[in-house]
Design goal:
By secondary structure, this protein is of the alpha+beta class. It contains two helices and nine strands; from the N terminus they run ββαββββαβββ. Strands 1, 2, 3, 4, 5, 6, 7, 8 and 9 form a nine-stranded antiparallel beta sheet that branches.
Length: 162
């Protein structure tokens, strides 16, 4: 089930993440081990996530490699280390869509959001590089999860060109 696409304004959001280089076939294997590792890193610093976990897609080459970050928003800026990077999700307007259902449906939801934005004449914060499409901020936010993956809620939030 898909919510209605819309444009929202997001403020700057500090976050921490672990970067990974994956293919479309191995993407689903990244979150399970990195999510608890990042939670443990936060715990050793007496920090708590300030929201739902997310994938941040940085560079997308569907035929070869994706550069992604598995992250959590945090309440304020923090220092990263050799394994965990710290950054800020840029403020601005984002095209969003809420997908309720199994994460396998996210590819179709993403296609729907991209097509909707194209019909609206919206432009993405994205540039093409030799490594693939480099996104300013393209997020899959796991609003809810749990044992029944058919009920997961995932918010797509793709930053628009400013």
């Amino acid at each position: 089930m898909l919510g209605e696409p819309r444009v929202v304004r997001r403020d700057d959001q500090p976050y921490v993440a672990i970067k990974a280089f994956v293919t479309m076939e191995t993407l689903g294997t990244v979150l399970p081990p990195l999510h608890p590792e990042l939670r443990a890193w936060l715990g050793t610093r007496d920090l708590a996530p300030a929201g739902a976990p997310f994938f941040k897609y940085n560079v997308i080459d569907m035929a070869r490699e994706l550069e992604v970050e598995v992250g959590f928003p945090v309440a304020h800026r923090v220092a990263g280390d050799e394994r965990v990077l710290a950054g800020v999700l840029a403020e601005g307007e984002y095209a969003t869509l809420l997908h309720t259902g199994h994460p396998d449906g996210l590819l179709d939801a993403t296609t729907d959001l991209l097509e909707w934005a194209d019909r609206q004449g919206l432009k993405w914060d994205v540039g093409t590089t030799p490594r693939g499409d480099h996104w300013g901020s393209r997020l899959e936010i796991y609003v809810t999860d749990g044992p029944d993956m058919d009920k997961w809620e995932t918010q797509l939030a793709f930053r628009l060109a400013g």
